[in-house]
Specification:
Four copies of one chain form a homotetramer.
Chain A lengths: L1 E5 L3 H12 L3 E5 L11 H6 L9 E4 L3 H14 L5 E4 L5 H12 L4 E8 L4 H4 L2 E5 L2 H14 L7 E5 L3 H30 L5 H7 L9 H12 L15 H11 L5 H13 L5 H14 L3 E2 L7 E2 L5
Helix pairs in contact in A: 7-10, 7-11, 8-9
Chain lengths: 305, 305, 305, 305
């Protein structure tokens, strides 16, 4: 089986390697010609020459590049060909894009991909949405990418279901990370447990909370016992936000996931406007001292109004 | 009626003035002799000479000073005399202290006091706990302190009930302040509403959210439109913590009050250990760049393990 | 000045009365002919005959009816005429609707209205978005509706700003209500404070948490001391959801408002699917007894796997 | 090596079996004589006859039984003997108990035990607090109980550190379970993902969120696809509460763990007093219909005041 693969960054590059390792043919395209197998998208499509299968193109590009790539692919592909979006797309965009391509008879599959830098070695978990027959056609590719064993792949439903499942996966991920993070902070603050990294390490077997994220937390603590070398600054890539928004759409309470998202927002603020308001109100009613913005150590005298 | 008043700081000093303004006799004591009416506690008690009432002493001192003062008063007072704790005591301490004094037949009343720097002029809201007859005896003092009109005083129950009511009052206060603070931050961030102070000001009549705290928020915004001069740093004085702890004791969910308390904790951190852990885990699984602790603008390159 | 007023329900009907009370001319239209001043929208517009002002139509209809009404008004009105949407619209819809009407030269103003059933007597708080000159033209109407005194009206910014300000107002409202609600539940659960309604009543003067919502809470407690006659079931009308979504768009942490929204979601569930999952996992790892869905009192025996 | 083991319930009974399986001698005592190796505590201690070691007694009883057992053991044991509390004790109690026993020269070790019904087969994770030499003496017992391999045991620090570590472990556990639970509820509500159990199953390899709790969640879903047979009712065993309280003591924000705890509290309420208050206030200001307590489907008519 052969496929085109658009985007050969950290994820796409490793995926090309893993698919090739399984014996499939990959024609990769990237704007970086040093790593690209084709000069442009047209060249890539032209090099897909198998006559016993539809042309298949896996798109693995940043969110903002997906629509331009799909627009161009719509011109280059033909009825019956298949496009897979493996990026971090919002599931609502999948439905729109699927309809766009369907005007030319091109099939669309959305595929949420998890695994990060470990995927090349361990395999990528795949959550796919699309029609049964199309998913069936693509199984050799999914099998090449997914981990060995019985887990790591699900055909979650129609178009959009793959990215929806991946979105929920990431929402869950936010809250699990927050759980370990809160536990870490409490252990560090209490100073009763004398060896926090060893405690996390001990939890890796026999406990209720053993997990892959725990293993990673232990790796990080072994490198930097108190995480002194790292700032408490966490980006978010969209899925956490979409999870909370989807929950709101369906009136589902998600307090732990929302708390995790808000903690990331707060981590990126130099100062909190909300807490400025709290400090200002406290000063107004109680004459509580406030700290001036300029000098962190300077407390303005209580002001009575 | 006459009373001794121990502690003439920001609260106690104003309370002395308000009680005297109502025609009662106050013998105040403070370690600062410039403002004290007595040289020590014994002198203060000695100056309580009314023969038609028990000796009454109102204690208005910082939390850590209450027990020493009560211990000394237990020596100086006699059976039937009354001690009122008007400080920010935890209600569980009231019960202990009441028992201590009862060994000598001294009566104890706990009184939560709200009003801050505005109390001298507007009156202090009082939440009292103690026996009916003792509260009855003290009503001239409470009447002097409380606001005019029908509100501002409650005999909440037995000893401890006053500080419990005050504790819950403050827990509610935390969450109301957080409500306005979150609204403020959102209005500032969205930049759609062009005049945030005017918007808050408009809410002072006709809306569902009009309140005294809103008035104070408007005062603060009129002085400093974007609160540029103030840091987002908020202390907590104990009652918020006790409220959440009491809620946990009674299995009562208090998500908004707890969120408000945690926001204050976070406001006082230079960096968040929990978010360091989040950043460390993200780096481990995704090769996500982390920010170094030293230089806020420096992002270490993705590390693959 | 004269205006058309579409929608004479609980809000619109009272607003007609208040505007007329201020001496303005109102031609109201409602599908309920018993209360309508016109047979249909065309009739209503036809009855606007003042020659010294543009035609002005205030739309006060349920959210789902706004677009059909605006579409019909676009046919009936002319260049320079003005439409005001006073409903609970999402601010993003304002911008779309404003553009629609602008094709015919019709001006659009969005106006968030607060006040509920008390507005007829006390006045309605108004938060408006639109061009300066249009707002200026409409001031006699706003002045008729708003409370007396200096507060209760703001020209918040361009089109959309009015409903955005109202949305944030409601988000704040959710969290303030949650604050009192959590305090009420704790006081009821602890049973230390012997008279909860009196305690709330006492807070109405001199305290930091005095507010109009507190007054209403007291009213409710006076009618039904323990709220025995009411179910813990709370709808939400959209603004709370939009507030959290807007906060997410701007990366603003809103933990208290989100907690309040989630509490409402949970209040409407017969049983919590999330807590079923918690119970199921606990049973799996600890052999903790679970309760069967059929019989609330039936605990299935621990199951070991 | 030999030890006495007090309490042969679900945990203690399995632990006796596992320790014996490792070749150590266990004299178990339980009030249930059918499973007990001794008639009473004195008999149990009398049967500890090894002369080359101090007497060692592991206490594995419900929380309320620990103090009576320790009091009796204090009479039966001698200087240099060792008592281990393996129950779900609060770490602050450890310190008190250790001091009590130290008056007779008896050594105390606290040991948090995780593993539930799976521990017999997989081993128990152990988190211990106590002096180095005592822990060293006890290592053969710990080695018998813990999982094979390098993980599952930590000497966390002085007395109290073991239960503190276990407490934090459980706090983390609460939030991780809540994470999966929220994801489950959202997937069920959205109905986009057509096979929720398969989706959870797929996550067991290659994803960021793979864990032992996920495996258990899959087990539960395979038995009962929509968890129809189980009620959304979750007890809590204390550690979650203590974690939040410890966090409050140290001013550590724990929003996700607290949210998880509050969700459990709410799951046990027939109706929410807080949401009654919300409904009551909404009715007061907006004439919003409320639901009567008696008949869930009955909405009282709007009331205007």
């Amino acid at each position: 089986m052969e496929l085109g693969l658009v985007g050969l960054g950290r994820m796409g590059g490793n995926m090309r390697e893993r698919i090739r390792g399984a014996g499939l043919t990959v024609v990769g395209f990237d704007h970086n010609q040093d790593i690209s197998d084709a000069t442009d998208l047209a060249d890539m499509v032209g090099k897909l020459t198998a006559t016993d299968q539809p042309k298949v193109v896996w798109v693995m590009v940043p969110v903002q590049a997906i629509d331009p790539v799909l627009t161009e692919l719509a011109e280059l592909l033909s009825e019956g060909d298949i496009v897979i979006d493996g990026g971090n797309s919002r599931w609502t965009d999948d439905i729109r894009r699927s309809e766009l391509l369907s005007h030319k008879g091109i099939k669309f599959v959305d595929c949420g991909v998890s695994g990060g830098v470990w995927g090349l070695e361990n395999g990528y978990a795949l959550m796919c949405g699309g029609d049964d027959d199309i998913i069936e056609t693509l199984m050799p590719i999914f099998t090449a990418l997914k981990p060995e064993g019985e887990f790591g792949f699900v055909h979650a439903g129609k178009v959009g279901a793959g990215h929806f499942a991946k979105m929920v996966h990431n929402g869950i991920e936010y809250a699990i990370m927050q759980a370990y993070a809160e536990g870490f902070e409490l252990l560090e603050a209490a100073e009763i447990v004398q060896n926090v990294p060893d405690t996390f390490d001990s939890w890796r077997e026999g406990t209720v909370i053993r997990s892959w994220l725990l293993d990673l937390m232990v790796n990080a603590l072994k490198e930097d016992t108190h995480l002194d070398k790292i700032r408490g600054y966490a980006d978010d890539s969209g899925e956490g936000r979409w999870t909370v928004e989807a929950a709101i759409d369906h009136a589902v309470p998600v307090p732990a996931i929302a708390a995790s998202l808000f903690a990331r927002f707060a981590s990126r603020q130099e100062d909190s406007p909300a807490m400025k308001a709290i400090a200002a109100m406290r000063n107004q009613f109680g004459g509580h001292a406030v700290k001036g913005a300029e000098d962190p150590s300077y407390a303005t005298p209580p002001i009575k109004h």
